[in-house]
Design a protein that fits this description.
Radius of gyration of chain B: 22 Å
Order of helices and strands of chain C: HHEEEEEEEEEEEEEEEEEHHHHHHHHH
Oligomer: heterotrimer
Largest interface: A-B, 56 and 48 residues
Number of strands of chain C: 17
Structural class of chain B: mainly alpha
Number of strands of chain B: 0
Distance between the termini of chain B: 33 Å
Structural class of chain C: alpha+beta
Helix content of chain C: 25-40%
Radius of gyration of chain C: 30 Å
Strand content of chain C: 25-35%
Chains: A alpha/beta (317), B mainly alpha (287), C alpha+beta (539)
Strand content of chain B: under 5%
Number of helices of chain C: 11
Number of helices of chain B: 12
């Protein structure tokens, strides 16, 4: 059985609001898949549909080729963390994990193991109501790992984490993927996934805008552009413009040039005697790539879906 | 693909594999869901407090009532019913417990985790119903036995003696046994009724308000000296609490608006309707 | 430009000084912007109204023997008991009558099994002098009398009662009584010695004819003993007999040579208000009492008069059932909604942590609670007032149409004192109950717990009071906030008439406003406890 999540053509409406509009993607094993998009893009709804909590109006969501509701011990197939605060405050963390374990036919031994793994330690015997947000996240992760599942799904796991926690979480997600699991992590901040994800599913308005590897996405956003540092940006701009390049200033001494190769730029600048200190291939940040992709979705919410389709084509190359 | 390594990744499904008869495909077994619900129920302190409250209220108010009721000469009182009066206030604690079993999961959002672990909603609800019934029937048995014992000890001193035609309360007496066992069943049905209503309404405040209206206001209104007899009869015959408590009567049975077992049957019908409505809504709605 | 002297930023917003009105506004905004709460509040009012009207619609007056008594009708249009032994002469125009009463004995008629410790049997037995428009039962009258339990009284036209000299009458401590008539005005006096007279009161008897009847009378109402057993009511009636001795009888303005004539006025009414023909001939005269009641009830010798009566009374006819008060219990359905709203008004904030926002906006927690109480109390009061003001007149009309005669079960106008008491009382009861539930919510911080607590103290006592024996039942209705439901009593109570007061029939041991005070004390205690805990506990 292939450990994957397959989402195909999901549609769902809440009253007049379209939450999912043909959501389709697949999560492959052995890598961390980032599930990104602006707030309200349909990430959480998709996850709830995968888990059988919400019913889609159309389309299917399969885990390991089966509907979630038909799984015999679902937590041994999919571990998930949707809302870390969803706990009954008067129950201790250990007892919370214990009832979950019992629902899957697991024992207290397994509970203690995941408590160790998530780093909860002695705090597990305290009431969960007194936990900090970070502790609740760890408890949620412990619950997700309980069934030692091949598929893991985390909704905004970085929320409320301190920088140290974010670094730990990235490493943790990677190690889970390295064991061969399929890991789906949603976020509305691309920067959180910068070094964490291998693959990205970018969504907006209930649809997939881009389904690509991180490297491809950055390359597409960089798109052969060259970064130039110079003490005379206006002279450089004038000279390069004469050579039919497109120039954009990003700071008082940095220009981004497209339409010319790096060697040609050096030649043009030397010919015009413009001083410069550095010429390099421009590497877009993931954040920039993401902003470019989702700009249409965010800015033109009222526009026709063609805007999204355009975005999709751009992302494809 | 490789499945490996993470701590404790040992053969976790051994138990499931041993159950050869169980189909490999298919939903979470009810047995495991029940186990989970039992763990859930016993690991919040409110369960114990509410059950204790139910027992203390039932036995305590029962004992107070039997202490207050005198039978100087002949009297028409029903000593069994009298000593089981405490069910009236005690059932409130049971109803609260039963409502919270479902609604507290909605208020905290934990219902999503529950239904992620047990995706078959009918199984999840059945597990809750089974555990709740077990717990309530046990606590109800304790409460009812304590009430009957109190009545047995107190009533003879208040004139409910052999001289006035009353035998001491004893479970060896058929009608008394029926009343006592029926009162325990009554509490169990009230719990399931509350669970069904709580599942349908999802909000603890609204559910409690509706249940307490049915448990207290309908009997109160049906007891008023002003109603036309036909209506009084109707309310007592079809109200869940008034009909259900007919099970406690041991005297003047022909004069009751509804007989003991048919009365409990009416409550059972209410319970079935509430469970059905709750179950259907749980199945149809998003969480 | 120097940055070293930069002045700290000051908020451009200048709130007013007194923050309580702002708190009120904030809490009101919180309340009205949750659509479910507003709907629930409107539903509470509508449900209250509907339940009350529906109960009135199925309130079976036709089947209730007390709903349409054959009692006499008094001058005010109300049903009255007007049955007594009367020794009379005609009195034309002006005049007066004076007597000395030297004894009044009131005993149980033998053989009925009334326990001895209940004697004197009837504190409201009466004997004295009376000026009455005629011998027709229900006609206007004014009387001054002695009683075994309540001293000298002046009563007129059935409902009016004023106290004169206190203490019982005896040969050693006789009472002098006097009534003077001038036109349609009758004035009553009493005196301990026959020389020093004190006026008790003045009655204007509308339509008093030129020739009225004046004389001596005696009446001894039945003794009532209410026995509420386990959901089962056994009410016992015991006949008592009053015997009074008079002397120094002096009538001025009578017809010259007039002789004293004795006779029975009216007929006794049974518990259901029916003419009790087992004791009385159809003419209403020559009643033969049961037991060993003497046939001869009047003797006159050497200026001494002795009168006795059994089973009579001159008083408003009252019944033990209070249909309006009972159908107003329909407001319990609204009450549950109101309890839920009051509790959730604060527990909803705890559930999602909104309470922290509230307390950081207004750190003085006691004032926040006070503002919440004012808002939920006022909103409930208005809703309850509208619901009750619409439902009560409709319910009264339905009850009337259903057979509850208005001579016994008055139809109160909304502007009458009693009508206002019922409508305002219902609204106030709901409002204070909402505040109590709010306090329970603040203390328990869980809506389930707070709502249950509210129901247990406000509603369960009503049910237990009906089920329990009357002693503990009455104490429940004195001590728990359920006492406030006395505000909804619809039939008037007269202290001079002994009546059953049973929760089963909607009667409360405390007077209405005392009962309301009990609820208010609970609410005040709740507010104090909630304020203390809010300050002490972390939010």
């Amino acid at each position: 059985m292939e450990a994957t999540i397959e989402v195909s053509g999901l549609r769902k409406q809440f009253g007049p609001t379209v939450a999912l509009d043909g959501m389709t993607f697949t999560v492959a094993p052995g890598q961390v898949t980032g599930f990104v998009g602006p707030n309200g893009a349909g990430k959480s709804t998709t996850m709830r549909v995968i888990l059988g909590l919400d019913a889609a109006d159309a389309g299917t969501a399969l885990v390991g080729g089966r509907r979630y509701q038909t799984l015999r011990h679902p937590l041994s197939q999919v571990g998930s963390l949707l809302d870390a605060a969803a706990l009954q405050p008067s129950r201790s963390a250990r007892n919370h994990l214990l009832w979950l374990a019992h629902s899957q036919g697991l024992t207290a031994k397994r509970v203690d193991a995941v408590i160790e793994q998530a780093g909860l330690g002695q705090a597990a015997r305290r009431k969960a109501g007194g936990y900090s947000l970070g502790m609740r996240q760890r408890l949620g992760i412990a619950a997700a790992l309980l069934g030692d599942p091949p598929v893991l799904m985390f909704d905004e796991p970085f929320n409320g984490m301190d920088p140290e926690g974010i670094v730990w979480m990235r490493g943790f997600l990677r190690s889970l993927a390295a064991e061969g699991r399929a890991v789906l992590v949603s976020s509305h901040l691309m920067s959180e996934l910068e070094d964490g994800a291998d693959h990205l599913v970018v969504v907006g308005r209930g649809q997939v805008i881009a389904d690509t590897s991180v490297a491809e996405l950055i390359a597409a956003a960089s798109d052969g552009r060259v970064s130039l540092r110079t003490t005379a940006p206006s002279d450089a701009t004038a000279a390069l413009a004469r050579a039919d390049a497109t120039v954009a200033a990003t700071s008082h001494d940095t220009l981004i040039i497209s339409g010319l190769t790096a060697g040609r730029i050096v030649a043009v600048l030397n010919d015009s005697a413009v001083p410069f200190s550095e010429v390099s291939a421009h590497r877009a940040t993931l954040e920039e790539a993401y902003m470019e992709l989702t700009r249409d979705v965010v800015e033109y919410r009222a526009a026709a879906p063609s805007g999204v389709a355009t975005g999709s084509r751009e992302a494809a190359q | 693909m490789t499945r490996a390594l993470s701590a404790g990744g040992a053969p976790l499904r051994g138990a499931a594999l041993l159950r050869g008869a169980a189909p490999l495909r298919g939903a979470t077994p009810l047995r495991e869901a029940v186990h989970a619900e039992w763990t859930k129920l016993r690991t919040v302190p409110s369960t114990g407090w509410l059950l204790l409250t139910a027992i203390v209220l039932t036995a305590g108010v029962g004992a107070l009532t039997t202490t207050a009721e005198k039978c100087p000469a002949s009297c028409g009182a029903d000593p069994t019913k009298l000593s089981l009066t405490g069910i009236l206030p005690g059932q409130a604690a049971i109803a609260v417990l039963a409502v919270l079993v479902m609604t507290s999961e909605y208020s905290s959002g934990m219902i999503r985790i529950t239904l992620t672990a047990v995706p078959r909603r009918a199984t999840a609800m059945a597990a809750k119903a089974i555990i709740l019934s077990g717990v309530v029937l046990t606590a109800g048995t304790v409460a009812v036995l304590a009430s009957v014992l109190a009545g047995r000890l107190i009533l003879p001193g208040n004139g409910f003696s052999a001289a006035h035609g009353f035998a001491a309360l004893s479970l060896g007496n058929g009608p008394t046994l029926r009343a006592a066992a029926g009162s325990v069943l009554y509490l169990g049905l009230i719990a399931l009724f509350s669970l069904g209503l709580g599942t349908a309404l999802r909000d603890s405040g609204a559910s409690i308000a509706v249940i307490l209206s049915l448990l207290y206001i309908v009997p109160l209104l049906s007891d008023l000296g002003v109603l036309a007899p036909a209506w009084k009869h109707r309310l007592q015959e079809y109200g869940p609490a008034t009909a259900g408590l007919a099970i406690q009567a041991t005297r003047n049975l022909p004069k009751l608006p509804i007989g003991p077992w048919p009365g409990l049957g009416v409550l059972a019908a209410w319970t079935a309707a509430a469970l059905l409505a709750g179950g259907l809504l749980l199945r149809l709605r998003d969480v | 430009m120097s940055t070293g002297t930069m002045s700290p930023y000051q908020s451009g917003q200048r709130p007013g000084r007194d923050d309580f009105p702002h708190l009120l506004r904030a809490e009101w905004t919180k309340f009205r912007t949750v659509r479910g709460w507003v709907i629930a509040m409107v539903a509470a009012a509508v449900l209250t109204g509907l339940a009350v009207v529906a109960l009135a619609g199925i309130g079976g007056g036709q089947q209730n023997p007390g709903a349409h008594p054959v009692a006499a009708i008094g001058p005010g249009g109300q049903a009255v008991t007007d049955h007594f032994y009367f020794v009379r002469q005609s009195l034309a125009g002006h005049g007066s009558i004076t007597v000395r009463v030297t004894s009044l004995a009131d005993n149980e008629l033998p053989g009925q099994g009334l326990p001895a410790h209940y004697l004197p049997a009837q504190p409201w037995a009466k004997a004295g002098i009376i000026i009455k428009a005629g011998t027709k039962p229900g006609s206007a009258y004014a009387a001054v009398m002695v009683t075994p339990g309540h001293g000298v009284r002046m009563q007129y036209d059935f409902t009016h009662d004023a106290a004169g000299l206190a203490g019982p009458v005896s040969a050693a401590s006789p009472r002098w009584l006097r009534l003077t008539r001038s036109g349609d005005t009758v004035t009553g006096y009493d005196s301990a010695d026959g020389t020093h007279w004190a006026e008790i009161g003045t009655a204007r008897l509308a339509g008093l004819p030129a020739t009225a009847q004046a004389g001596l009378f005696a009446a001894s109402p039945q003794y009532l003993q209410a026995v509420q057993q386990f959901a089962n009511n056994n009410n016992a009636f015991y006949d008592t007999q009053a015997t009074a001795a008079f002397d120094h009888v002096r009538l001025t303005g009578g017809q010259p040579g007039g002789a004293w004539r004795g006779g029975v006025i009216g007929f006794p009414t049974g518990p259901g208000g029916q003419r009790d023909i087992s004791r009385c001939g159809p003419s209403g005269q020559d009643c033969r009492k049961i037991g060993s009641a003497p046939a001869a009830r009047f003797s006159q010798a050497a200026g001494r008069f002795t009168l006795s009566d059994s089973g009579g009374d001159i008083a408003p006819y009252i019944t033990d059932v209070d249909p309006l008060g009972l159908v107003l219990k329909g407001s319990l359905i609204g009450l549950i909604a109101v309890i839920a709203l009051g509790a959730m008004f604060i527990t909803a904030e705890y559930r999602r942590g909104l309470i922290r926002t509230t307390f950081s906006a207004s750190p003085r927690r006691g004032r926040v609670l006070a503002a919440k109480a004012v808002v939920i109390g006022s909103a409930t009061f208005v809703a309850g007032l509208v619901g009750a003001a619409i439902a009560v007149p409709i319910a009264e009309r339905k009850l009337h149409a259903g057979g509850w005669v208005s001579s016994v079960f008055p139809v109160w106008s909304l502007t009458s004192g009693h009508g206002l008491q019922i409508v305002l009382g219902t609204a106030a009861l709901l409002a204070v109950a909402a505040v109590l539930a709010l306090c329970a919510g603040a203390v328990l911080r869980s809506s389930a717990g707070a709502i249950t607590a509210g129901v247990v103290v406000l509603i369960v006592p009503l049910l237990l009071a009906v089920v329990l024996p009357q002693g503990p039942g009455d104490w429940l209705l004195r001590l728990t906030p359920a006492a406030a439901f006395g505000l909804q009593q619809g039939t008037p109570h007269y202290s001079q008439v002994m009546s059953f007061c049973q929760p089963y029939n909607g009667c409360f041991p405390l007077s209405p406003w005392y009962g309301f005070a009990v609820l208010c004390v609970w609410a005040a205690a709740g507010l104090a406890l909630a304020t203390y805990l809010l300050r002490r506990r972390d939010a």
